[in-house]
């Protein structure tokens, strides 16, 4: 084969493989979402949102698990958002180019990808063992710890996108730095920061591993944050692994519910980011 | 100099006007930044303390013992460590070429209107939580693998001497291979996102001049883009590896949770995170619990090293790009 033909052939092979790889990646997305829809849609109904998780072999809903997940995600968001935003503010506004800032950024990025089950073990050691029992508080703290690095990272990135001219203009009017940050920089970066928080909520709302050792599970309705609390991911785990058809159906329903809310959060975040005034 | 004095005076008067807020706000943000470090230190200390009884009991043998027997209280980390490494290796073997193909398609081949939606769809793969992959793997992928892929592997590769050992035994669907495959799908978006970003840092001039010399797309990628972006590509791969090593729920569903080391990839096994998820809440006895925490410590150390390396490479790349 002449050289030119050989080069063209190898080019087409590489291009073909690349297209195939992309199709392969998209195939799994379609497959996972498709199966979820097919299997989960049968479980979606009024009962899912109004009844408690049933004992084996009978039908019921996921009300206590949904409420528990909302409660723990909510508390985690309340703890994680201010923590992450303030730490991110330090990195963007007070630690540009200094060694300590580099260290915090480095550690934060490692925590961002660290296995969530390790965070579960940590909270188990620090809270569950000390308190003597599993509790919703421990679950919420574990989720908050997972959330913080995401918020730190996006807050820092978004604050850095704000042009220095805005800060300088505010400072030239005599505003002290904290006022510049809170009243000018935050406001300019608001959409981006909200995006970060939404993505962080999406990240923690499907987390299962850290809840296994902290919030555990509860078959019944509970509003006591000092007790184990039902939550969607752990219920899905237990029900899916069980041999009972009713439980498995509920697991699919819960899985569809979680995935749908995560996709909505993700898409909202992306739309918000596209609207934001300063683009990366 | 009068200007300096004026500024100093101004600062002083600003202080008098109640700009006490500045050091307070800086201190507040600093405190929360320190908290990030405290969390990491806390994780390490609590894992070491929790693992201490097991490490004192078994010493270095913990790392090289396969036995895991809660009844006789003999514990060793070899099987889960082996499982973690092998599943991650399978994930990398499948995930890296696919991620490379995706990144290549997005940066070099696809029309520009398709870039954003396509990137977004691949990134959605990363947004789907681990447990969803788990339930899907258990009910959809595992039966499919059992009926179609594993019999084919046993008949073809299983007959080859040498590699054949990896594909022996009955097709169960649940096992190390299926777990590795699911991990490959899960790390794909992380690796391809980094690859896409570093491919885009390659100056257009380099690409254009290579095309102008008559190079084909594949030659541009192999000879120009890839060499230029290799540090970043390697960083992205390590980042994906860090994810694969610690992934829990998806693996727990499909690996079969058996504390054994089989040469065959078709047999059930376990990983560190699967063992933790499966056994931790049911562990009775301090030594059992402590051994599980020791497993967690091993996982933390391995992922920390891998992720730190990834991060250092990517930081080096950033500096290179800036300078």
Summarize the structure.
The complex is a heterodimer of chains A (280) and B (323). Chain A is globular and about 70 Å long.
The coarse silhouette of chain A is globular
H and E order of chain A: HHHHHHHHHHHH
Query: SS-based structural class of chain A?
Result: mainly alpha
Strand order of the largest sheet of chain B: 1-2
Number of distinct beta strands of chain A: 0
Mean model confidence by pLDDT of chain B: 88
**Gap from first CA to last CA of chain B:** 36 Å
Low-pLDDT stretches of chain B are: none
Helix content of chain A: over 70%
Dominant shape of chain B:
globular
Q: Identify low-pLDDT runs of chain A.
A: none
Specify the biggest β-sheet of chain A: none
Structure description:
The complex is a heterodimer of chains A (280) and B (323). By secondary structure, chain A is an all-alpha fold. Chain A has helices spanning 3-40, 46-50, 63-94, 99-113, 116-131, 136-161, 164-172, 177-188, 190-205, 209-212, 232-241, 245-275. In chain A, helix 1 packs across helix 12 and helix 3 (63-94) runs parallel beside helix 6 (136-161). Chain A is globular. In chain A, 51% of the residues are buried. By secondary structure, chain B is mainly α. In chain B, 76% of the residues lie in helices and 1% in strands. Chain B has twelve helices and two strands. Chain B has helices spanning 2-16, 21-58, 61-64, 78-109, 112-127, 130-156, 176-200, 204-212, 217-246, 249-254, 272-279, 286-322, and strands at 68-69, 74-75. Chain B has a two-stranded antiparallel ribbon. Chain B is globular. The chains are: A mainly alpha (280), B mainly alpha (323). At the A-B interface, helix 1, helix 3, helix 4, helix 5 and helix 6 of A face helix 2, helix 4, helix 5, helix 6 and helix 7 of B.
Output the keywords.
heterodimer, A: mainly alpha, globular, B: 323 residues, mainly alpha, two-stranded antiparallel sheet
């Amino acid at each position: 084969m002449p050289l030119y033909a050989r080069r063209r052939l190898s080019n087409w092979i590489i291009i073909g493989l690349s297209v195939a790889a992309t199709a392969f990646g998209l195939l799994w997305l379609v497959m996972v979402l498709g199966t979820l829809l097919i299997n989960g849609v049968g479980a979606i109904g009024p009962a899912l949102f109004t009844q408690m998780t049933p004992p084996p072999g009978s039908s019921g809903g996921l009300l206590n698990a949904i409420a528990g997940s909302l409660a723990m995600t909510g508390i985690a968001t309340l703890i994680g958002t201010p923590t992450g935003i303030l730490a991110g503010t330090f990195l963007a506004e007070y630690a540009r180019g200094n060694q300590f800032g580099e260290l915090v950024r480095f550690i934060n990025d490692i925590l961002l990808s660290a296995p969530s089950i390790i965070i579960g073990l940590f909270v188990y050691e620090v809270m569950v063992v000390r308190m003597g029992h599993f509790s919703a508080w421990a679950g919420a703290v574990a989720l908050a710890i997972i959330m913080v690095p995401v918020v730190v990272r996006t807050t820092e990135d978004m604050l850095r996108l704000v042009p220095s001219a805005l800060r300088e203009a505010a400072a030239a009017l005599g505003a002290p730095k904290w006022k510049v940050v809170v009243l000018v920089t935050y406001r300019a970066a608001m959409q981006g920061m909200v995006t970060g928080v939404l993505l962080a909520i999406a990240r923690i709302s499907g987390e299962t591993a850290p809840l296994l050792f902290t919030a555990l599970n509860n078959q019944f309705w509970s509003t006591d944050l000092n007790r184990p609390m039902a939550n969607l991911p752990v219920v899905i785990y237990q029900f899916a692994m069980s041999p009972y058809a009713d439980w498995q159906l509920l697991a699919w329903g819960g899985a569809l519910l979680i995935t749908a809310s995560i996709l909505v959060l993700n898409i909202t975040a992306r739309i918000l980011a596209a609207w934001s005034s300063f683009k990366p | 100099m009068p200007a300096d004095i004026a500024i100093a005076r101004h600062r002083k008067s600003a202080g008098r006007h109640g700009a006490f807020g500045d050091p307070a706000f800086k201190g507040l943000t600093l405190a929360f930044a320190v908290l990030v470090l405290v969390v990491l230190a806390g994780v390490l200390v609590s894992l070491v303390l929790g693992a201490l009884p097991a490490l004192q009991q078994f010493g270095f043998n913990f790392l090289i013992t396969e036995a895991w027997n809660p009844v006789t209280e003999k514990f060793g980390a070899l099987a889960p460590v082996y499982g973690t490494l092998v599943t991650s290796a399978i994930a990398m073997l499948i995930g890296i070429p696919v991620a490379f193909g995706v990144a290549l398609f997005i940066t070099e081949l696809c029309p520009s209107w398709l870039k954003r939606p396509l990137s977004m769809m691949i990134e959605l793969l990363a947004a789907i939580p681990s447990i969803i992959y788990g339930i899907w793997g258990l009910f959809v992928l595992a039966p499919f693998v059992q009926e179609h892929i594993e019999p084919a592997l046993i008949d073809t590769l299983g007959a080859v001497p040498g590699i054949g050992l990896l594909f022996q035994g009955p097709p169960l669907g649940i096992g190390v291979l299926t777990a590795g495959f699911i991990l490959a799908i899960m790390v794909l978006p992380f690796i391809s996102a980094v690859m896409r970003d570093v491919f885009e840092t390659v100056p257009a001039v380099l690409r254009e001049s290579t095309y102008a010399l008559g190079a084909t797309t594949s030659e541009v990628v192999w000879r120009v883009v890839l060499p230029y972006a290799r540090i970043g590509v390697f960083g992205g791969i390590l980042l994906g590896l860090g994810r694969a090593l610690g992934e829990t729920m998806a693996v727990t569903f499909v690996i079969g949770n058996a504390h054994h080391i089989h040469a065959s990839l078709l047999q059930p096994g376990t990983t560190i995170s699967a063992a933790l998820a499966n056994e931790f809440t049911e562990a009775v006895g301090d030594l059992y619990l402590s051994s599980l925490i020791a497993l967690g410590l091993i996982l933390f150390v391995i992922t920390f090293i891998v992720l730190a390396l990834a991060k250092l490479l990517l930081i080096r790349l950033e500096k290179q790009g800036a300078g």
